[in-house]
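name: query_chain
kind: protein
chains: 1
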Amino acid sequence: MKKSIISFIAVLLVIVILCLTAAFGLNLGPVSIPSVLDEENGIRRGLDLVGGSSITFEAVLPDGYQSENLSSDMASVQAMMTKRLDALGYTEATVTLSGDKRIVIEIPAINDPEEAVKVLGATAQLTFEDADGNVILTGSDIVKAQAGYGQLSQTSLGSQHYVEVTFAEDAVEKWTEATKKAANAESGKNIISIRLDDSVLSEPGVGSEYAETGITGDTCVISGSFDADSAKLLAEQINIGQLPFTLNQVQMSAVGPQLGEKALSTSLIAGGIGVLLVMLFMIFMYKLPGLVAAIALCFYIALEAVVLTLAHVNLSLPGIAGIILSIGMAVDANVIIFERIKEELKNGKTIRSSIDSGFSRAFTAIFDSNITTLIAAVVLYFFGSGTVVGFAMTLGIGVVISMFTALTVTHFLLNRLVDFKIRNPKLYGA
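structure:
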């Protein structure tokens, strides 16, 4: 009995500490957790909540440029800018094409457009480097890259996906010398690193068969464990770094919150009222288990706020939607468990046996629903961009925490109530 009281109080203290940490932050020397309201170190807010900067770039086409390629080249610019912003953590930024030659980029939380331009840059820097980091070729040395499929040689086992890179005429000799050097290098250093900005796109090895001559000619084939999508992606990334035109900044401005300055505070008040009504409903329907669910929900909200703060998640309306959806799943898990407990009580089982059996029988349904949602969140995170990534991140984190809360915290607290000899079935919703 005494141990149960101590453990119950300990859990309540942990929940209180988590709530205070989420609201005010925590600084204990090496352990530092910013407040959820800390705009600089906490959760980043999206353009719709906090405003930011808008920059417009325009393509400057050189003489002789083939205009029929403009559409695909501008799509490459859009992909490059999105990739760069995602890498910098601005997943709530938007990159949209405007007309034939312009691209508009809106970055949240950076209210100084000059600073936004510095953060973004204008063009991606493509480099081919040896194992020692020496630059062999740059984007200007590349004519094009394209994905292909077929049998590469008579000795190959069959058809495979590959990427073919075409070099400019004055780059062929540099490429031949660099691949000859790589082919003669020791294992682990016989590679050519293809980089876009600071990201490594690929590190193909140069076979020993090129030790005497190097790779000659104006084309080179990169092969390996490619599928159709990964080969196409690498070709597009290489092409991004050698766009045949430059981008000039033609307009920049500060953008105010699209939903108004009080949108976040209003959303928080509305969310608080909603959570309170859900707690009251759970207590009314399920009595003591409902009260335990309300306590566990406080734990869930506080823990998710701390995790989102540490992850520096970009929060906009889609991100808030992900949080609300995960809260709904947390409540739904408790409803499934409590209904199972009520069924077990109606069958004449004891309180403790009903609780254990209810959690055991509800586990499969809760696990299946959460895993399928988590799979969807992972797919959206890796294949989406912009606000979709923010939604996927908040949803994925929320699903994991909600499943942990429902299956461990709620179960633990209910068992402690039984230890307190509170065993009237009516108090458990029967």
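note: The chain has a mean pLDDT of 81.
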